[in-house]
């Protein structure tokens, strides 16, 4: 049974945006990253950045390059496969940083794996300082440890940074009771509880990410990244997608 709340939050002081790596690749293209899509994402962030006093962190996945679990299933050592995936997120983070800076948005990439010539090493207090100063902080390389997804990274960084919400930009327009690609009668929730997501195994985030958000009272708003303007709407607190609370 889904829960009902009066409305979604309208103003966010600090938010964590989770971007799907796969959404940065144009369907049918041989390129892993589409500069046009990255530029559109950056522009939508820029519009929201100009309109409000939002402090923003971003976690981007690496599925357009690599999926550790899939490589492990084909015989690769799981830890090694996950580290490859973490490096894939760094490439996406750098591409997004470049696009944001071209739009005049001050930002910094902080990596959970030390790589001095590419990104700053993640230090929680320094990341908080950057966000207080108005810089967008892009968190790369996952948690720095294998066996954790970038969804869990988003939940972890949101908890560490004191974010009020996680905005999960993905390939679907919300949370459904079954796979809408397989079931044309699938029902989309406007609001759904964490416990229902876990018990019904709704494939929005993994259980570790759900549990972190539930324990720290951080709602998740799931929305369609592919529809132009949706990122701006989500960042500005407009009603969109499904809220998990």
Q: What's the N-to-C terminus distance?
A: 13 Å
Uncertain spans:
1-6
Q: Helix proportion of residues, in percent?
A: 25-40%
> What CATH architecture do you see?
3-Layer(aba) Sandwich
Number of helices: 8
Strand order of the largest sheet: 4-3-5-2-1-6-8-9-7
Q: What would you call the shape? A: globular
How big is the Rg? 17 Å
CATH topology call? Carbamate kinase
Give the tally of structural domains. 1
Tell me the number of strands.
Answer: 9
Output the helix-strand order: EHEHHEEHEHEEHHEHE
Main beta sheet: strand number and arrangement?
Answer: 9 strands, mixed
CATH class: Alpha Beta
Strand content: 15-25%
Helix/strand structural class:
alpha/beta
CATH superfamily: Acetylglutamate kinase-like
Rounded average pLDDT: 92
Structural account:
The protein is an alpha/beta fold and 245 residues long. It has one domain (14-244): Acetylglutamate kinase-like (Carbamate kinase, 3-Layer(aba) Sandwich). 37% of the residues lie in helices and 16% in strands. The chain has 8 helices and 9 strands. The chain has a 9-stranded mixed sheet, sandwiched between helices. Helix 1 links the parallel strand 1 (14-19) and strand 2 (55-60). The longest helix is centred in the middle third of the chain and has 25 residues, at 78-102. The protein is globular. It starts with 13 loop residues before the first strand and ends with a strand. 47% of the residues are buried. Residues 1-6 have low confidence and may be disordered.
